[in-house]
């Protein structure tokens, strides 16, 4: 099985796993391109062998980041387009599905940005956590509408993704104040909206996002600050329709402490969860390219898009 996976797919999987490729939409696009590359490079001589190669490639990609649902949703979209009965026909199916997925992805973020911008007023200050291209699309659209937006940006330890957010907001002309994560509550009184992205949204409206999002949401609700989640529909987690829970990825200890420092501290046990779960009661609105929804209504959209559940097209038949 392993030898059928193209080197480009393995390289993409490694880059997703090590977070050289990060962000749900970027991960999804990379996965679609990788399957396209597998299809165009395949020398399979039967439709069954071709499908087996694509399933193996999809499994290699799927196993890298268990929490980022955009990844399996991208794989589902591309693989379910395989309907032809010849190798060349199947190859064309995958190429067309991958290209269509990436085109829809590009349009979706722009459409989401317009929906989210309508919730932001001229003169608003937002607080961000981590780095979300969906959240930034809302700010960019608001700025293009002529609104003056300012931002308080949390660094988001341990990988400091907030630094990326700060840089991109600066490039939009948005004044930025960068704060350490533990200072968030202190500055919430100066904030009109908390604006975050999502790596997955469950059927009950729970939001799975970078660790620290849940605590920020609790503090924001206590201060009466609205919490807006920007999430394309590819972030919706269809497995949760059947009661499935979302796996929370645990990252490497070395993201927090190097081996020497760990030894100096007496080798304590280190936990480094990448994500946490924000209950729907702390979220005011989930903004998608299909419009904005209260979290308790997201299940209606999910059923419309995915039905009552899914099967994994990369599983062995």
UniProtKB/TrEMBL annotation:
Q: What class of enzyme is it?
A: isomerase
Q: Pfam families annotated for this entry?
A: IF-2B (PF01008)
Task: List the active-site residues.
Answer: 130, 199
Which keywords annotate this record? Carbohydrate metabolism, Initiation factor, Isomerase, Protein biosynthesis
Which InterPro entries is this protein grouped with? IF-2B-related (IPR000649), IF_2B-like_C (IPR042529), Initiation_fac_2B_a/b/d (IPR011559), M1Pi_N (IPR027363), NagB/RpiA_transferase-like (IPR037171), R15Pi (IPR005250)
Another remark in the UniProt entry says: Reaction proceeds via a cis-phosphoenolate intermediate.
PANTHER family referenced in this protein's UniProt entry, alphabetically: METHYLTHIORIBOSE-1-PHOSPHATE ISOMERASE, RIBOSE 1,5-BISPHOSPHATE ISOMERASE
Can you say what this protein is called?
Answer: Ribose 1,5-bisphosphate isomerase
Q: Where does substrate bind?
A: 22-25, 65, 209-210, 235
**Domain of life (superkingdom):** Archaea
Family per record: Belongs to the eIF-2B alpha/beta/delta subunits family. R15P isomerase subfamily.
Which GO molecular function terms does the record list?
A: ribose 1,5-bisphosphate isomerase activity; S-methyl-5-thioribose-1-phosphate isomerase activity; translation initiation factor activity
Q: Per the record, what are the reactions this protein catalyses?
A: alpha-D-ribose 1,5-bisphosphate = D-ribulose 1,5-bisphosphate
What's its EC? 5.3.1.29
Q: Which GO BP terms sit in this record?
A: L-methionine salvage from methylthioadenosine; pentose catabolic process
According to its UniProt entry, the function of this protein is described as:
Catalyzes the isomerization of ribose 1,5-bisphosphate (R15P) to ribulose 1,5-bisphosphate (RuBP).
Q: NCBIfam families of this UniProt entry? A: eIF-2B_rel, ribulose_e2b2
């Amino acid at each position: 099985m392993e030898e059928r996976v193209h080197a480009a797919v393995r390289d993409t999987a490694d880059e997703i796993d090590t977070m050289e490729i990060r962000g749900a939409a970027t991960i999804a696009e990379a996965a679609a391109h990788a399957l396209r590359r597998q299809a165009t490079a395949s020398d399979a001589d039967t439709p069954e062998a071709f499908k087996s190669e694509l399933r193996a490639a999809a499994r290699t990609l799927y196993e890298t980041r268990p929490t980022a649902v955009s990844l399996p949703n991208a794989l589902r979209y591309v693989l379910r387009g395989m309907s032809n009965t010849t190798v060349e026909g199947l190859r064309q199916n995958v190429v067309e599905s991958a290209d269509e997925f990436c085109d829809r992805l590009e349009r979706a973020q722009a459409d989401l940005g317009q929906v989210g911008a309508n919730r932001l007023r001229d003169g608003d200050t937002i607080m961000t956590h981590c780095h979300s291209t969906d959240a930034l699309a809302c700010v960019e659209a608001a700025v293009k509408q002529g609104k003056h937006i300012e931002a308080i940006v949390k660094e988001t330890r341990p990988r400091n993704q907030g630094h990326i957010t700060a840089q991109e907001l600066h490039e939009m002309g948005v004044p930025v104040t960068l704060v350490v994560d533990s200072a968030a509550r202190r500055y919430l009184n100066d904030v009109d909206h908390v604006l975050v992205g999502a790596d997955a949204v469950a059927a009950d409206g729970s939001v799975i996002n970078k660790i620290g999002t849940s605590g920020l949401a609790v503090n924001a609700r206590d201060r009466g600050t609205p919490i807006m989640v920007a999430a394309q529909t590819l972030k919706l987690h269809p497995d949760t329709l059947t009661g499935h829970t979302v796996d929370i990825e645990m990252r490497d200890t070395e993201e927090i402490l190097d081996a020497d420092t760990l030894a100096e501290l007496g080798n304590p046990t280190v936990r480094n969860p990448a994500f946490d779960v924000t209950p729907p009661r702390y979220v005011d609105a989930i903004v998608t390219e299909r419009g904005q929804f209260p979290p308790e209504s997201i299940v209606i959209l999910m059923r419309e898009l995915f039905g009552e559940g899914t099967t994994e097209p990369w599983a062995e038949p």
